[in-house]
Amino acid sequence: MALVTLKEILKEHDGAVGAFSTYDLFSAQGIIQGGEESGLPVILMIGHGPLNQPGNDYVGQIMVQLAREATVPACVFLDHSKDYATCMRAMKLGFSAVMIDGSHLPLEENIAITNKVTEAAHALGVSVEAELGALAGLEDGEEAKKAKMTDPAHVEEFLGKTSVDALAVSIGNAHGLYKGEPKLDFERLSTIEKISHGVPLVLHGGTGLTPEQFARGVQRGIKKINIGTEVKTTYIGAFIDTHEKNVSAYDMVGIPQACKNAVAAMVRDKLEFFARGYRDLIV
Ligand code: 13P
After folding, report:
1. 79 Cα nearest atom in ligand 1
2. Ligand 1 centroid vs 239 CA: distance in angstroms?
3. For residue 136, what pLDDT is reported?
4. What confidence category does residue 135 fall into, taking pLDDT thresholds of 50, 70 and 90?
5. What's the whole-number mean pLDDT along residues 197-216?
């Protein structure tokens, strides 16, 4: 039984823990395998959209089962839920953490929905992540990005009025593939860290950030790093390569295994870097 909450997994760790998007059986197995190969704690996450696809309760159940059987601590996490109902659904499936993302709402409404979810989650021993400041989109210019960044004044008020277990911040990070070199506002992150009183901070949009940026983030309070797009590019890349090696085989046994192993290798390397490797890059 290695299913643990977000609160537990982030507490027992020096550096940061990687959280990886899950889509199906083979990505879930690959993420767990990567955790076991590294001997490090790992977070399996599934987005609100994917979990709500018809039939995908089974993917949630597989994630929970694999986490329970893992030889390393594993947290099963609902990513970016915009509503209470999906959080409740995840908890019913046995998830050990949920994210309620009210970052698009006015501050008071974000606090209200976060508290509603936290009350239910904590009563069930489930951890909660919230978000302040929206993540920039790919097409956003510098001005739009700045406008969406986490406002440190909001952090104090938000953390004073909620009891979340982790807080996602917006410091120039974005989901998907970055257009050009991503620029992160580390000064803002340092300010947020000082006023967050030890509440672990979360960096979304991990795909495409440089090792130096991860290291600087971890140095300033980032305890969880989300990787989504790189799971997809790794998985689909392995799918295409394996299929193209022997097209006529339509190898429904070998191709998923190759996808799983490729995801595992990527996850293992990321976990090792977030836990230890980053230290070599701290200046
Ligand atoms: P990327 O897809 O950019 O890695 O971001 C994933 C993420 O932050 C999911 O919440």
Report:
1. 10
2. 21
3. 74
4. confident
5. 96
For the whole model, what pTM was predicted?
Answer: 0.97
Which residues are marked as active site? 79
Residues near ligand 1 (Cβ within 6 A): 21, 79-80, 175-176, 204-207, 226-230
Pocket test for ligand 1, best of 17, 21, 173 (most atoms within 8 A of CB): 21
Q: Ligand 1 centroid vs 245 CA: distance in angstroms? A: 30
The reported pLDDT for the residue numbered 102 is 96
Residue pLDDT, tens place only, 15-60: 999 999 999 999 999 999 999 999 999 999 999 999 999 999 999 9
Q: Which residues of 64-89 are buried (b: 16+ CB within 10 A; e: fewer)?
A: bebbeebebbbbbbbbbbbeeebbbb
Q: How far is the CA of 249 from the centre of ligand 1 (A)?
A: 34
In our burial notation (b when 16+ CB lie closer than 10 A, e otherwise), range 146-181 reads eebbbbbeebeebbeebebbbbbbbbbbbbeebeee
